[in-house]
Amino acid sequence: MSVDLLREVLRAADWAILCYFVALNSGYLVLIALAGVEFVKHLRRSPFAGTDDMFRSPLTLAVSLIVPAYNEGPGIVAAVQALTSLRYPRYEIVVVDDGSCDDTFDRLREEFDLVEVPRVIPAEVPCRSRVLSVHVSRDNPQTLTVVRKTNGGKSDALNMGINLARHPLVCMVDADSVLDPDALLAVAKPFGDDPLRVAAVGGVVRIANGCTVVGGRVVEVAMPRRWLLRVQVVEYLRAFLMGRTGWSRLGGLVVISGAFGIFRRDLVVAVGGMDPDTIGEDAELVVRLHRHLRARGEDYRVVFVAEPVSWSEAPASLRALGRQRRRWHRGIAEILSKHRGMIGNPRYGRIGVLALPYYVLFELAAPFVELSALVLLPLGLWLDAVDVAFAWRFALVAYGYGLLVSLAALFIEEMSFHRYPRWGDLVRGVSAALLENVGYRQILTVWQVSGALAAWWGTTAIWGTMKRQGFGEPPADAPKPARAGRR
Amino acid sequence: MAGAFTAVVLVLAAVVATTGAGIVGARLWRQARRRRQAELAARPRRHLLAFAADHEAQGADALVAIAEPAWRAAEPGALGLLGKLRGDAHRALAAVFVRRGAAARAMAALHARGRVRRARAAQILGDLEHHAAVPDLCGLLTDRHREVRIVAVRALGRIGEPTAAWRLIAALDHADGLPSLLATHALAQLGPEAEITLSAALDHPAARVRAVCLDALGLLGAAGSAHRVARVLRDDPVPEVRVTAAASLGRLGTPAAVDPLVRATDAAEPVALRASAARALGEVGAGAAVPALAVMLGDAQYRVAHEAAHALRRLGPAGQRALRAAREEPADAHATGSTAAMHAREALALAEIATTAARR
What we know:
Strand content of chain B: under 5%
Organism (chain A): Mangrovihabitans endophyticus
Oligomer: heterodimer
Structural class of chain B: mainly alpha
Number of helices of chain B: 20
Radius of gyration of chain B: 29 Å
Distance between the termini of chain B: 85 Å
CATH topology of the domain at 51-319 in chain A: Spore Coat Polysaccharide Biosynthesis Protein SpsA, Chain A
Number of helices of chain A: 14
Strand content of chain A: 15-25%
Structural class of chain A: alpha/beta
Keywords (chain A): Glycosyltransferase, Membrane, Transferase, Transmembrane, Transmembrane helix
Protein name (chain A): Glycosyl transferase family 2
Shape of chain A: globular
Transmembrane segments (chain A): 15-37, 348-369, 389-412
Number of strands of chain A: 14
CATH class of the domain at 161-267 in chain B: Mainly Alpha
CATH architecture of the domain at 51-319 in chain A: Alpha-Beta Complex
CATH class of the domain at 51-319 in chain A: Alpha Beta
CATH superfamily of the domain at 51-319 in chain A: Spore Coat Polysaccharide Biosynthesis Protein SpsA, Chain A
Number of strands of chain B: 0
Family (chain A): Belongs to the glycosyltransferase 2 family.
CATH superfamily of the domain at 161-267 in chain B: Leucine-rich Repeat Variant
Largest sheet of chain B: none
């Protein structure tokens, strides 16, 4: 009798899991469809977007680019040089050297002829670390500032940058990111068009591995050589480009990548800056902004801009990928736990009743459900709760629908921005969408589950190391401690 | 149940295969289209570049004679070029567009049902600097779609017809009105002839309108309005408008601005106004402001002290003397906030860097 009951329970669980997969992928598909609509809208409007007018206007809001850097010696000079040649009328670069042990600062000092200045730094947002010195470029003191401080982590470095920032908009950029020349104009444009309501704008992050970078610019886009990276390219397209564009259209964007996002400085100060105790500090800031602005009953927008883009290096090894995904999922778990009062709360509008419940159900819970499926389906087979015919159909529907979602993302990309011009890359992208279901997704679930559990058990967050390959250059030998959680 | 399940799997497989085929089809279609467009646009592009370099009548005739399909292929590039050109080169290329009927088509499209068509038409007319379109573009300032209104503002600014000033000002006062910075830039592009309208609008009941007009007057360098701006700085009931008036006086740079600005730095005034006034005093460049700025160096508010220090730096030798005097004041060893000496050190260090750079 008890075995029969167990079989019934297993059968019901398997059906429930199948329904969950269908709902999950249907959600993705809806977001991708919304992104498609948004891209069409964006492309139809590009002839009158007014980007050139914005570049020429003396009133375009000035931006402070904040670049936290920890042991970025090999690439910091190229990164800052690339930032100095962005197409934008008025901006400053604030590099925060977060207690690097390597030659990050020495390289900057040599290249930009840095000179130390006594600087009064307002404590508008809290910083836990101590400032060692502030430097400006002798040739252009208004454009480049480098602050050296004791190590305090990425959030603390960003907070220091926010305090030093002189301009009304702050843009957070990873030191190893490569921005398209017009990327800053594009992400700042919503502030010009709708200055009273736009609170923050997220830019899209794509994978730079495999691309050719010359002089701090991506000059040739190509798929990476390794399958692990190709799968991530498809994943970034589906989840970051399409998913966030879809959420932006729904008015429910809760994640802006720390690698490329721009915020109104006064609002960031008003909410107290970055939270140094959350590992997913970028998303946490956005959720906190929503909370703050909703609580004040303000009419505001958080927007996502799909192009141009910031290019970032993705983990090329399983080990580094595992650390990154554990960190990301830990971040989701921490944020949802910290802001649990917003979940399902109509006071917070679409964020409360739509976006955050979605994140609980389909982002946080997804790896747990998938892991359950990997256990319960074989168990059901073993106990004769389900037959083989059900099992293979179950797998085909669950993973087939996932494949369809990835292909839909590739289709929208092909119809809109088509950044991968080679036929070979197209074939590799489709193949990666297929291969993603074999092994990659399963191992991802294990990492994600362990990340969420670490958050709930309160274990110490470990940032780990990531070996940089460099952009279009020979791989760097030395491993680089990665301070930043990249989303 | 198994049958239904199998059907679902088969349908899914068919959709997956169709999506895959769609990706390949989209790539093939795009490549073929790009090739065709490139072939069509090759000749017009050569003519365009030659014309942009010498803008002679022959070149204009050659561009007008280009067949419609080839011109359509080259038009995005031609419009891009038009947006970048200025002066005679711009006028000559705009005349080519007008002869090809682009202006007439755009004028008609200003009344199209689709908002994208209306916005595109407004953009083209702005790029052509087509003065005849001003009344219709002014009509678009109250379009029900924000994006159309935005393009109309930019187009009016680009055309630079001063009679559009009052319509732009009126559009600012609507619910979901124009973005302030965009309107300010457009108003400033209308030139000195718009000064009277802008100055009169300083009495407008809407604070946002007054702020935009103040900014525009500052950008125009409308020194004749300095007294009216000073009056707004002194009397306006809205603090944000007074902050804008201070910034505007800084841009105007007239000696008449000094006294009202110095009064605005009074400790009883709001912090934002005092900081803005301090900054403006630095821009005006009047030595008479030094004593007031020197006092502000020790202000407890970071922004006020910071702006005062950098204003003194910009004021040259007199200001820097005041900074050096403040630098010598003993600083609190445990100070973490603003003190006069710390701000003075910062400003002097930057002044020294600028001096060294100038010598080099």
